[in-house]
Design brief:
The chain is α+β, with helices and mostly antiparallel strands. Helices cover 36% and strands 31% of the residues. The protein has helices at residues 6-28, 48-63, 109-121, and strands spanning 38-40, 43-45, 66-71, 75-77, 82-84, 88-92, 97-104, 125-131, 136-142.
Length: 146
């Protein structure tokens, strides 16, 4: 094989592989930054799912199971004050303690890291709901060790 054709072949094959990878990546990629914001009760929510969870928690407040529903509370994890903003915070009347709530349509690398930090440095229980606006459920309750 003549060596002068080698760079041309590498470029052609490399661009085909790159294009194939880009197409399959784009097909499976969901850009979470493009999720439409939702307005409800004079509040703005990051997604329909988050707004639906808000309605669910408001119903729990009306039933007396929760008190003082707050949205987008700033929490700092570790002494380095790594910020996290859980979707909601409320006082659970049965447990007699504050509980945080998080709606997760899908997980990001940031969330996975902050979830791990919450297990040690979180200020209280974190109830994680997964799903969509049409169907969701609580998948875990993180109780910090500290």
């Amino acid at each position: 094989m003549n060596c002068e054709y080698l760079p041309e072949i590498k470029n052609r094959v490399g661009s085909q592989i790159k294009e194939s990878v880009n197409q399959s990546w784009k097909k499976n990629f969901v850009d979470y930054r493009k999720v439409a914001r939702v307005e409800l009760d004079g509040r703005s929510f990051a997604s329909q799912f988050e707004a639906t969870l808000y309605v669910y928690l408001k119903d729990m407040v009306a039933k007396g199971e929760l008190q003082f529903l707050e949205c987008q509370v700033h929490v700092y994890l570790t002494r380095a004050r790594i910020p996290m903003i859980p979707d909601f915070k409320a006082f659970d009347t049965a447990l007699k303690e504050e509980v945080y709530f998080e709606a997760k349509g899908f997980e990001t690398e940031k969330w996975i890291l902050k979830r791990k930090l919450w297990t040690v440095y979180g200020p209280g229980r974190l109830r994680v709901f997964k799903g969509s606006a049409k169907s969701f459920r609580m998948v875990e309750e993180i109780i910090p060790k500290g």
